[in-house]
């Protein structure tokens, strides 16, 4: 799977003036594709508004990490606050966009990303509140798991993080919007046929006339 | 002035077996490593810990869990600690998960002397027992109880002799909330400074919430986050 392709495509979702929360893992890599001139406030739920990537010539503040534990820096206009204020910001809908990973998503826009019973239960973290309360929830994940099973399902099987919360799904194979009518294919990965994509997707896809590539 | 400064051995010795202990920190920043190491050394058992995460494997509170001192961890996320996930799967430690902001709010609510609050977070998920919902102002909502504890272990960047606390950048996280919610608050500090050096309007935790101060400069323990 071409991780950079997904991350690069996801970076295009972000616009000047937004407040954005990036989940641990793949979503955090989006920072590599954001130009320093862009006026975005990245919120990190451990109590930072205005996080930015640390550059090689900057000194490390051992007290300053992102929610994934990596050392970071802050931009001009940044602020620090405690965890209750951080989640007040999230639950009050002050975050414009959140981009997070998933174990499973489904065609109703529901998300499962906190628990695989008996195997890997990392815990809820900020995901439940971010998914339920952020106006624009974008999911970044591989289209299929290591065994080739579709992660885009008709109905999630794993315990849910939040129901009907997703607006857009970006995978290595497709960009898909969640609408009232169902999942609408927006873009398909270059070199992949429509037949192959449908074959590798459990959920029903609505295929419009015009589909972009990425 | 009341003398809050105390030797690390003496203050940790006040914690009995079976105590509930809030531990500040999100990952490394804010984790009171010296206080945790002293608890490991003294070996109190059957503890209930309350912390955002389990630290990473063999670091911070993970040492207490791995050493079998912890019966229960009330937390939000342990994804960066494979050992504790494995211990949870083998039922060697009881883990209770909350959404991170709900955990913070439960602690803040106790810190404000209240008994609970209403929320709609997680209503469509397995963390909500539908029987626990109440109808309030036309909405189905869940009652979350306030979360108190016997002790809080806190790391502050700056502390004066009165116990006013200032946290470093993202090391603040849960600490000011826990300092309000616990019955006894034990602080380790990297810099014990004269009160005149702290600006009153910049204090994060006012001194009334703090019971004991351990000066890390006097301690043989080295603070991990300060030594990186």
Report what the structure shows.
The complex is a heterodimer of chains A (214) and B (228). Chain A is globular, with a radius of gyration of 17 Å. The relative contact order of chain A is 0.15. With 214 residues, chain A is α/β, with parallel strands linked by helices. Chain A is built from 4 helices and 14 strands. Chain B is an alpha/beta fold and 228 residues long. Chain B has a domain at 18-97 and 148-218: 3-Layer(aba) Sandwich (Glutaconate Coenzyme A-transferase). Chain B has helices at residues 8-12, 33-42, 61-66, 82-89, 100-111, 175-181, 224-227; strands spanning 20-23, 47-50, 70-75, 94-97, 116-119, 133-136, 139-145, 149-160, 165-166, 182-193, 212-215. In chain B, the strands form 2 sheets. In chain B, strands 1, 2, 3, 4, 8, 9, 10 and 11 form an 8-stranded mixed beta sheet that branches. Chains A and B meet through helix 2 and helix 3 of A and helix 4, helix 5 and helix 6 of B.
Q: How do the strands and helices of this protein lay out in sequence?
A:
The complex is a heterodimer of chains A (214) and B (228).
Chain A: H1 3-11, E1 19-22, E2 41-44, E3 48-53, E4 72-80, H2 83-91, E5 97-100, E6 104-106, E7 111-112, H3 127-133, E8 136-140, E9 152-153, E10 168-170, E11 174-179, E12 182-188, H4 194-199, E13 205-206, E14 212-213
Parallel strand pairs in A: 1-2, 1-5, 5-8, 6-9, 8-10, 12-13, 12-14
Antiparallel strand pairs in A: 2-3, 3-4, 6-7, 10-11, 11-12
Chain B: H1 8-12, E1 20-23, H2 33-42, E2 47-50, H3 61-66, E3 70-75, H4 82-89, E4 94-97, H5 100-111, E5 116-119, E6 133-136, E7 139-145, E8 149-160, E9 165-166, H6 175-181, E10 182-193, E11 212-215, H7 224-227
In brief, what are we looking at here?
The complex is a heterodimer of chains A (214) and B (228). Chain A is of the alpha/beta class.
- Largest interface, chains and sizes: A-B, 46 and 52 residues
What class would the helix/strand composition of chain A place it in?
Answer: alpha/beta
**Based on the structure given, which CATH architecture of the domain at 18-97 and 148-218 in chain B is correct?**
3-Layer(aba) Sandwich
Q: Taking Cα atoms only, what radius of gyration of chain A do you get, to the nearest Å?
A: 17 Å
Give the terminus-to-terminus CA distance of chain A: 14 Å
* Domain tally of chain A: 1
């Amino acid at each position: 799977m071409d991780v950079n392709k997904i991350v690069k495509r996801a970076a295009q979702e972000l616009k000047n003036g937004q407040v954005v929360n990036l989940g641990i893992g793949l979503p955090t890599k989006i920072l590599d594709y954001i130009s320093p001139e862009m006026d975005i406030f990245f919120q990190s739920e451990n109590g930072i508004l205005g996080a930015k990537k640390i550059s090689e010539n900057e000194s490390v503040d051992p007290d300053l990490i992102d929610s994934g534990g990596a050392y970071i820096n802050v931009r001009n206009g940044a602020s620090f606050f405690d965890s209750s204020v951080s989640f007040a910001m999230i639950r009050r809908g002050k975050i414009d966009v959140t981009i997070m990973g998933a174990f499973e998503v489904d065609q109703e826009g529901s998300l499962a990303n906190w628990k695989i019973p008996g195997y890997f239960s990392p815990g809820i973290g900020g995901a439940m509140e971010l998914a339920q309360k952020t106006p624009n929830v974008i999911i970044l994940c591989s289209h299929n798991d290591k065994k080739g099973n579709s992660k885009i399902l008709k109905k999630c099987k794993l315990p849910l993080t939040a129901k009907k919360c997703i607006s857009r799904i970006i995978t290595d194979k497709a960009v898909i919007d969640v609408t009232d009518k169902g999942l609408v294919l927006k873009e398909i990965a270059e070199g992949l046929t429509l037949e192959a994509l449908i074959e590798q997707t459990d959920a029903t896809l609505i295929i419009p006339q015009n589909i972009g590539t990425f | 002035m009341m003398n809050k400064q105390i030797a690390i051995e003496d203050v940790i010795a006040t914690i009995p077996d079976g105590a509930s202990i809030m531990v500040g920190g999100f990952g490394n920043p804010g984790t009171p490593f010296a206080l945790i190491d002293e608890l490991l050394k003294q070996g109190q058992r059957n503890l209930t810990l309350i912390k955002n995460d389990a630290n990473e494997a063999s670091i911070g509170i993970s040492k207490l869990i791995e050493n079998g001192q912890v019966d229960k961890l009330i937390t939000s996320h342990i994804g960066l600690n494979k050992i504790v996930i494995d211990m949870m799967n083998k039922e060697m430690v009881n883990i209770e998960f909350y959404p991170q902001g709900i955990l913070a709010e439960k602690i803040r609510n106790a810190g404000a002397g209240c008994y609970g609050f209403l929320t709609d977070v997680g209503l469509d998920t397995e963390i909500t027992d539908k029987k626990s919902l109440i109808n309030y102002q036309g909405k189905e909502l869940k009652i979350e109880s306030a979360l108190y504890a016997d002790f809080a272990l806190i790391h502050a960047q700056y502390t004066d002799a009165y116990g006013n606390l200032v946290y470093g950048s993202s090391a603040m996280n849960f600490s000011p909330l826990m300092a309000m919610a616990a019955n006894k608050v034990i602080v380790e500090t990297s810099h014990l400074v004269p009160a005149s050096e702290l600006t009153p309007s910049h204090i994060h935790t006012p001194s009334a919430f703090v019971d004991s101060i351990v000066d890390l400069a006097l301690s043989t323990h080295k603070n991990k986050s300060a030594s990186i």
